[in-house]
Please model this.
Amino acid sequence: MAFFYESYDAAVIGAGHAGCEAALALARLGMKTIVFTVAMDSIAMMPCNPNIGGTSKGHLVRELDALGGEMGRNIDKTFIQSRMLNESKGPAVHSLRAQADKREYSQAMRKVLENTDNLTLKQAEITEIITNKSYDPKEWEGTEVNAAGEEHVIGVKTLSGGIYPCRCAVLCTGVYLKSRCIYGETEQFTGPNGLPSANHLTESLIKLGIEIFRFKTGTPARVDKRTIDFSKMEEQPGDAKIVPFSFENDPEKLQKDQVSCWLTYTNEETHRIIRENIDRSPLFNKSIKGTGPRYCPSIEDKVIRFADKERHQIFIEPEGNYTNEMYLSGMSSSMPEDVQIRMYRTLPGLEHAHIVRNAYAIEYDCINPMQLKASLEFKRIGGFFSAGQANGSSGYEEAAVQGIIAGINAAMKLKSKEPLVLKRSDAYIGVLIDDLVTKETNEPYRMMTSRAEYRLLLRQDNADLRLSKYGHDVGLLSDERYEKVVRKQEMIRQETERLASIHVGASKRINDFLTAHNSTPLNSGISLADLLRRSELKYSDIHEIDPDNIDIPYDVSEQVEINLKYEGYIKRQNAQVEQFKKLESKRIPDDIDYSDISSLRLEATQKLSKIRPESVGQAARISGVSPADISVLLVYLEQKKNADRTHN
Amino acid sequence: MRIYNEDTIAAIASGVTNSGISVIRVSGPDAISIVSRIFKGRIPLTEAESHTIHYGFICDGEKTIDEVLVLVMRAPKTYTREDVVEIDCHGGVLITRKVLETVLGAGARHAEPGEFTKRAFLNGRIDLSQAEAVMDIIGSTGNAALKQSVKQLRGSIKTEIERLRGIILDDVAYIEAALDDPEHISVDEYRETLEQHINSVTDDVSGLISSFDSGRIIKEGIDTVILGRPNVGKSTLLNNFAGEERAIVTDIAGTTRDLLEIPVSFGGIVLNITDTAGLRETDDPVEKIGVERARKKSENADLILYLIDGTGELSGQEIESVRSYVDKNLIVLINKNDVEGSISAADFARETGIDAIEISAKNKTGMNMLCERIKEMFFKGNILENEPVFVTNERHKNLLCESLESLKAAKNSLDSGMSEDFITIDLNAAYDTLGLIIGETPDEDLVNRIFEKFCMGK
Model:
């Protein structure tokens, strides 16, 4: 029996990393929001790796924080180890990664949700997205529904028949749609960790005309810490100096004792066991149909595909302070239990390991993200947004940033404002979403620094300078935080000018200083700015010979130093961005009829008609659209412009 | 909507010469019906299957113009991706023109230069570099230029650029993988390989750039000036090159008063030859201007052919005059070696230290030697034999120079110990710039260039 609940501005389906950010953004922007989850205990759960950040993912979290998201603050509250990766490389690829206490992370996020105004939590499985075209008139008798015009969301329905009228819905179903967990011959129709899967919503989506993919991912086993011999492994401690994820946190206040991770390796014996049992792997005997990620392969995948590699690195990471469970990073698998026990035990230090939870693969339904606009709203269904793993991405961080963008844009839609769309030259978030909605996704999408063309400009250290304005403009970032960024920007400018204006001569003191730092002594005067451009001198070194001897906050001097040191590269990247923006600013009219351009190749016509890119730049990134097609499109647009001009 | 005016065009496709067979190409939606109207054969062309040949006659009303073979090719598997008809008629300027006129009379429009190519390009049949090559063919004069253009059309520039981009892409991919997965992949040992690759790509790009001068010469010809005192046989030599009487030849010194530039094909290369007034002191105001122009012209010339009369005495003044050109591409020719007792090249070399070639402009001897010398001088002798890739297009050259800058910047970063993520910035820039040459990098300026190059109308 269907029955009506009170109505909401927005319903968020799922309370994982995407759902939490979407719901918080909506509620904080004043929208009356309800969040549905199949299990209240799974809010912001980390069902796989016990960490946040890493290469390029660390960038995403910092960008999210600059927009006013929660993940950065939440990991700062609950981390148990922190590292800056790639520190020997340039600043563009420095990446922050923190090990989380999984339970604390989940509980801290739940606390934030429960204490946010306008936000209601509800444990229920959503089975239907109701639109003005798909609703059952009998159920909605007495309610006015405008069935004419564009299709749009009018409500959602739960398994028990509860109807929640709402104007926006955000799909954040993660890996829960029709999920199936498999290892060896064992299969269970559940979500991760035995949680209930959501088995009905897919059908409703298909009825709405939405194309569904079936993807696969996997997780390694967890073992009991007491059964591991750490003396046979390399210790991986955290960094001495901890850098917070959130720009609002003071590094000094975050320093604390950290736990270690451990490194061990697979060996010939491991590989032999895998090879001998490969026919029992559901990935290889084809009982798994879903497409898995290439960059995050299972151990059996690695052994088969990189047969000449003698060993693979395996990191042993704690799941939290509350438990003895340890995560075996790099060794996800869907082998049968008996093979798992044998293969894990070949690793040095794991000879007597007790497996607490088996490794497994999980298959799930997700949508084809090319059906979405860059705002993450479905092109064909107004008010219906989608974010996270439901969009075919993978990873907590990728999910979270899509969540906040979908949440912001649902709120913008409700307020009749322009959506927030970040460009590839603005943020990794822009790259991620553009890739998802433009490029054909054949496997779960993971962020990588190599996907960002302008990464020297999109550093994790300047995410606040790049994005705070957007966060503040939409109303998510507080005035206080935004003003802090404006002040920082001003201090960077002043300090850069000051360094350029202060000159030091070729005195003995200065040259002794330079010699001591392995830097060429001076013959004539030079500005401090020019000295800082030398790769061997750091800002803190220059401080020794700075006559002003003023105290500049580290986050300011860091920017000054990067800007001066890499000025030439930054300039060149800026020039590349200008080039990129040319095609990006060539808008394609909404009403373009690609079948009208007879010179386009058939494949290009089909792809362009399906994806309907917003700019020529976006069109050029669609696979199957060649540069020749783009020149044809450009010529067409030019001719059309001329023709329109003549007509008017 | 078509992106160009959708009418049917026709032109002579084989060049207007007195060859055995001429080809008239017709392209457009009405190509088949237009030719069908003026063709008398076994079946109407409108019923012909695609890619079939038909024997018959082209008729203007009742009047038969020529006996022809007609090729019917239906879209899209044609050069322009439109319906195309080609008429093989008997060679000869008059008949060919007459057949074309008949086609035009039946409703086709005379094609603009390069218009078939424009359609092929706009219909996605060929890429920009191939289109450019076709335009170069249309504009080129000599055999070698044609070969080079045809080669480019087949994609030799493309192949070479693709190879270079492939090397860069592999390096970038390796570096990126390591940056994305620093715990599993290290680039620290890769720097040496990277350096080798950057050096080799840099060398190849530099090579392509320096081939531009040779390429330009192939395409546009060698600007050649014939110098010498009056009446040493300069005009006779020019006529030898040109194969017919162009310059006025008389025995009266100072006949050639003005500059006469004639492109000639000489052993497969093009010489743009300027015959000059004889170099002598003169009071005739008109001749004086001619002499002055000759000196000026020789300053900018690619090649100077200095002609000396072998039957006369070698004056100190003349030797001095020859010497003033030794910094340039100079070939001294001693004319009239057919006359007994004339100066030999060996004599001349002993006297002046400058190599010379003996010729007889009158008997046309020594010309092969001259040809070899010119090839040696401009192409180091290898152009026609080995046919390396030459850059003949200014746009390509500019883009190559731009990518060279990026490669140098990448090398600089490597040398100054910058980490790999900086090196990829410039490697990616080089990759994209090279892509612009072969149209693999999408480019907004492209559309402007198309409009320039093909004079796109309504």
Q: What stands out?
A: The interface with chain A takes residues 1-3, 122-124, 127-128, 173, 176-177, 179-184, 409, 413, 416-422, 425-426, 428-429, 432, 439-444, 446-447, 450-451, 456, 458 of chain B (CB under 8 Å).
